Amino acid sequence: MTAGLTVASATASPQIQETAAVPAAAGGADPLATPEATEEATPDATQEPEEVAAPEQEEDPTPKKADYAGVVDQNGGLIAISIRKGKVVGYFCDGKIEAWLRGTAADNTVTLEGKDTLVTAALRGGKAQGRIEYKNKSWRFSAATVKKPSGLYRATAQVRGARVVGGWIKLPNGQSVGRIMLGENSGEAAAAFDGGVQEWYGIPLTPQDPDQFIDSFLSPAAPAS
Fold first, then answer.
1. Are 139 and 156 in contact (CB under 8 A)?
2. Are 119 and 128 in contact (CB under 8 A)?
3. CATH tag, 65-218
4. pLDDT tens, 54-77?
5. Which end of the chain is more exposed for a tag (fewer CB within 10 A), N or C?
6. Is residue 189 a contact partner of residue 179, using CB atoms and an 8 Å limit?
């Protein structure tokens, strides 16, 4: 019995499992190793773009409030200009002719227009210096800064359906000029201005300074004069 088992064991063919050789990867890396996942950087969807600061705008050097009055060269009349936060009113008068003016002020320059009249001026050194163009005539002027009671004044009234408008300019040296108009075409030089209520043929006229009349004067519904 023992001999039979020995023979069977000796004659049995051993089973050899062949495994195909796998060539080594370059650099000694294990070819069977699982490659690590590569993380790709992705932009943050919630990141907001940087805000670029807008360049600061320089403040307009034009005075917010100023009153100018002076003599018109080669004419002898007076001109007054008043600025209130970019809005401008003006008045030119030599006793015989007059012009009420509306305009704007920016970058130390004023431009005003009225009936048959254009005024442009530069603001510097406490003065408004420029030119008046009235119909076919042109004059230069220099108007210094003034304080009340000097400066520009205006008064209005209604008389039997007719509109009365008075305008006055007063200089620090006491010189004044003005004109009172009844309607569009009839008027005359005003008396010397003393700052109080002005009587004109029994009609009381109460002069107002630009702070009091500028808004109504510049209203789109206001008459031209």
1. no
2. no
3. 2.40.160
4. 666 778 899 999 999 999 999 999
5. N
6. yes
Selection from 114, 115, 113, 117 nearest residue 136 by Cα: 117
CB atoms within 10 A of CB 6: 10
pLDDT, tens digit, for every residue of 169-184? 999 999 999 999 998 8
Instruction: Look at residues 68, 75, 182 and name the one whose alpha carbon lies nearest to residue 135.
Output: 75
Instruction: Considering only CA atoms, give the Rg of the chain.
Output: 47
Residue 3 has a pLDDT of 43
Tokens 């420029």 label which residue? 130
Q: Residues 6 or more apart from 170 whose CB is under 8 A from it?
A: 69, 149, 150, 151, 153, 176, 193, 195
Burial of 71 (C-beta count, 10 Å sphere; 0-12/13-18/19+)? buried
Annotated domain spans of the chain: 65-218
What DSSP string runs through 131-186? EEEETTEEEEEEEEE--TTSEEEEEEEEETTEEEEEEEEE-TTS-EEEEEEETTTE
